[in-house]
Amino acid sequence: MRCSAGAFSQTPRIRTFATSPTASQPLSWTTYFNLKSQLKTYERAASIAGFVSFFSAGSFYFLGVADFDPTDLYFGVMDPSFAYSMGALGVGVLGAVAGTFAGSAVWRGVTNKNILAAIDGKDKEFFQRIQKFRPQGQLRLSVDNPMPDYYGESIKSIQGYRAWLKKQRNVRMTLHAGLMAG
After folding, report:
1. CA 155 to chain centre
2. 68-102 b/e (C-beta count within 10 Å ≥ 16 → b)
3. pLDDT-wise least confident of 3-7, 73-77, 156-160
4. pLDDT of residue 141
5. Which pairs from 145-153 meet CB under 8 Å and 24+ separation?
6. How large is the angle between the packed helices 29-59 and 158-181, nearest 10 degrees?
7. Which pLDDT does position 133 carry in this prediction?
8. At 140, is the pLDDT very low, low, confident or very high (cuts 50, 70, 90)?
9. What's the rounded Cα separation, in Å, for the pair 81 and 69?
10. Alpha-carbon distance 167 to 169, whole Å?
């Protein structure tokens, strides 16, 4: 039995998802905010796992393996067990920071490359919108009267973006009224 060359030249099937953007279907804002929320979930989960694992390893080393003399003082004032506990906590915090980066890398690794390119484009557009619509009169603001959410960190949906725009408009109007009166 002989196989024809045409049997092997078929194009492979590629599974696509309904939410994956194509050239004709750009990434919607709702999908963008959902994907950013998913990224934050990955980062938080990896951060917690990193803290727990690094803190456990640091505790094992500092409290179980390392020898210390309880009569000596570290840095002239600190009890050795307190210093080692702080060391274990410091290693745990380092693990939390490393976990955040690892969670982001894992999420980027499992996400479709077309979606990543679309998210990067939407990030750029989103931050351009933030810069365009936030008030620029920072001179009148003080520690007692800060500008609400200058970088737009609280925006997690389209409704959140609209609420952010209203707050920025109110600040802009207040600043403008203050400049006109002063």
Report:
1. 13
2. eeeeeeeeeeeebeebbeebbbebbeebbebbbeb
3. 3-7
4. 61
5. 147/171, 152/126, 152/127
6. 90
7. 86
8. low
9. 9
10. 5
